[in-house]
Amino acid sequence: MAATTLPLLLARTAREEDPVVAATALVAAGLIGTAALAADLAPYLDADEPLVRWAAATALVRITSDRGDAVEPRLLDRVSPNSPQRPTILRPPV
Q: Are 80 and 87 in contact (CB under 8 A)?
């Protein structure tokens, strides 16, 4: 499913003018993607719209939080550039 859905979500995000729709597509990509998607998500950390930047950061953290996947530290540092530490990942209680 992810093999067909991810390209569609990324294509939608690239052409979408509504920041809410773009952010939703990014979060969805983060829910089904892997760390291999990090390079596709990274450019959205520089988006003009804060909601899109937040969605990209959320997706990046999500694709690396539940698995042993690794993302280049420089990408994660961009999620919280003013913080000396990476953001703490809060998870709901199980």
A: yes
CA atoms within 13 A on the CB side of 59: 33
What is the separation of C-alpha 12 from the centre of its chain, rounded to a whole number of angstroms?
Answer: 14
d(CA 58, CA 63): 9
Output the six-digit token pair for 67.
């698995």
- The tens digit of pLDDT for each residue in 3-17 reads 889 999 999 999 999
Residues 85, 93, 76: CA angle, nearest 5 degrees: 25
Q: Could you tell me the two tokens for 27?
A: 């979060």
Residue 27: burial class (beta carbons within 10 Å; 0-12, 13-18, 19+): middle
pLDDT, tens digit, for every residue of 31-83? 999 888 888 999 999 999 999 999 999 999 888 776 555 555 666 565 554 44
In 3D, which of 26, 28, 33, 27 has the Cα closest to residue 71? 33
